[in-house]
Every structure is written in C-alpha cells, then in structure tokens.
From TrEMBL:
The keyword Methyltransferase applies. Belongs to the CFA/CMAS family. It comes from Pseudonocardia kunmingensis. The keyword S-adenosyl-L-methionine applies. It holds the Pfam family CMAS. InterPro entries: CFA/CMAS (IPR050723), CMAS (IPR003333), MeTfrase_dom (IPR020803), SAM-dependent_MTases_sf (IPR029063). Keywords: Lipid metabolism, Methyltransferase, S-adenosyl-L-methionine, Transferase. One of its GO terms (molecular function) is methyltransferase activity. Residues 140-376 form the Polyketide synthase-like methyltransferase domain. GO terms for biological process: lipid biosynthetic process; methylation. SUPFAM superfamilies: S-adenosyl-L-methionine-dependent methyltransferases. This is Cyclopropane-fatty-acyl-phospholipid synthase.
Amino acid sequence: MQVAEIISDVLGEDVPVRVVAYDGSKAGPDRSDVALRILTPRAMARLVTAPGTLGLARAYVSGEIEVDGDVYEVLDAMADVALHDLSGSERLRLARTLLPVWLRHRQPPPDLEYRPPGRLHSKFRDSKAIAHHYDVSNRFYEWVLGPSMAYTCAVFPTADATLEEAQAAKHELVAQKLALEPGMRLLDVGCGWGGMVMHAAAEHGVKALGVTLSRNQADWAQAEIERRGLAGLAEVRHLDYRDAPESEFDAISSIGLTEHIGKDNLPSYFASLYERLRPGGRLLNHCITQPRTPTRKLDAFIARYVFPDGQLEPVGHLVSVMNDAGFEIRHEENLREHYALTLAGWCRNLEEHWEEAVAEVGIGRARVWRLYMAASRLGFERDNIQLHQVLGVRLDDRGRAGFPLRGW
C-alpha cells in the first residue's frame, strides 16, 4: 500500500490538504496552497504506536514531516478530520499494514517529550514541570512574546490593536476589576515575568508582590523592576504559591496559574488565596478552561511537550470551588476570541524571529512552539477551549462586598 493511501486512512477519505510522500504517492487536492510532506518511513512508524495527533506531532517535531505553507492553515484545513475517531479495528488494521515499516524504522519518542518525576502536583514535581516549559530561554520568550513579556491572554480593545496595546489593556482590566488604589497590597500568584506586578506598581501606586516557580522568570522580572525604578513598590520572588506570605492582601491576581494546579488541589488552592485576603479583598482568577462537561484529557501532544501535568476544568466547576472556599462571585467573562488573537500575534513573532529562535533553543523546540501555538489558536477559535476571568470577593463579617451598585 502506498504511503498516501495510508495517510488517507488516518485522515479520512476526503483529505483536505495536499499530501506528498517519500515514495512518490500523493493524496488530497492538487490545488491546495498548503501541503504535508512525508519525508521518511520513520514518520509512518510513528503512527503504529500513536495513530492520532501525537504520532503526527512526533513526526513533525523530529523533522520527519514538513509543512509547505502556514502550519495554522494546515491545522485549520484539517480541523474537522476525526484523528481521534479511529475505531479499534481500524487501529489494528493500520498497525498490521505498517508493521514492516515499524520493525525497520521504529524510533523512541523525541527527547523533548517530558514527564516530570515525583508525586503529581507535589512541590517538587510542580517545580520540574514549570522549569521544563518556562526555564527555556528568556531571550526566546522575548522574541515570541514581545516587549510586554506577558505569556497570558491579552485583551484587545479593538480588532486592530497591537499585541502590546492588548497586553496593557489586559493588565488594566485586571487592575480595574480588583479596584486597585495607591497604597494597596497586591499578591500576584504565578506572576510570570512580572507584567501585572509592574503595571500595578507603575500605574496604580500599589505595593505588589509576585511569586513564580520559574527561576528564569524571577531573575528577569526582578532585573526589569530595578531597570524601571520600581523597586520601592514591586518585587518578584522565586517561590511556590503555597509558600507565599500569609499576611492580609488587599487584592490577589492569578493570571494563568490555575491550569497548573490540578483538579484535586483546587479547593485548597482557592482556600489558601481566601485566607491571604483581608475582608473586602478581591481575587481575579484568569485561566484557560474546558468549554463543557464531561471534560476531556489534555491533548497528548500538549501534555507531553508543552504543559506537563496541566489540567483544564469547566468554568462552572471553578466558580463552584471558589464559592465553596468562601468567595462571593461578582463577575465572570469569557475572552476566548482574545486568546486566539493573542496567539496569532505570538505566531507572527516566532516566524519573524525563526532563525534566531532555532539557533537559541534548537529546531525541535522551535517546531514544538510553532505547532502548539497554531493548534491553540485554532482551539480558541473553534471553542474547543476557552479563557475565563472570574472575580470573587471575601465578604466582611457583615456580608458587605464593597462593590458599587453598577459598574466597577
């Protein structure tokens, strides 16, 4: 059987993109502007042990599959292809067909595939998981994220706003929801490179503390705080959120941390943040969520190459757990379209700095990022994942929230 026929079995009869294989066979429409090129039998051997997206991703990361054109366009064209819907009998037939290829060309998974050691969501294992993704190269992140160094969903005031304008708008939206005023104390858990911490200090006169499990992030952020002359108000520490100071804060922001917590730890997570707030203090939780129940496991490629141990929950579950921890929920909104725009900006940045990025982190890791950001953009556009901000308040002993009757 020719390679193109096998790929057609995996992708479906109506292959939406052009497929060109090393044996000269072809599939899909000749008029397609984008194409998958199967360069080596090793790519086919990957499909024996991982018949779906994981096998294809392994082959792409390893350079055994190449894409002609934009990766996002290929994924968009293939978005309706049921890669995960191969029946057991179809998987068995595929494995039998490819068995001779697998015996001659089998390869171990790429070295970039990672599963952290230790007990799930222990401090030790969480630190390893975070280091795997974030302690790559600050220079690489500067190229991808841009000057804001904000690695979370931006908020676009207009469709043509720049990525930097949208990241500043995101930080200001969080500040407004938290009602930040001069003299307040803010705790930002999972603070990344300190964007929210520095915004709160510079724009609102807030004494802000950020904590992150990434040593690279903490070092970069603290140096940037010094450079901006914000050392009197802002600080970032290399610290687990569970070890953050327990004194009363006026406000807490959690922007992109909850995805790393784990479902079983959510009650203790929100309870710990509740205890760190003064009565009347607010929590803004900003995180990626699943759009519906029952939930699905994190995509195997994302779980093994990008966010080890990451878990996404529906927003309804997060709201319930926050409520059970003592928070009164005051506001919630879905920003998934904004995250698609954010990822489009990061994808452009990576392509503009592709040669430098490859030289800095290697071709394999650069390919991981190209693939995962394009796939994530599509996921937000197609409502396979969402981004929710949930605002809660710790009421005072008389049940007062301190909110105006309308508006912020």
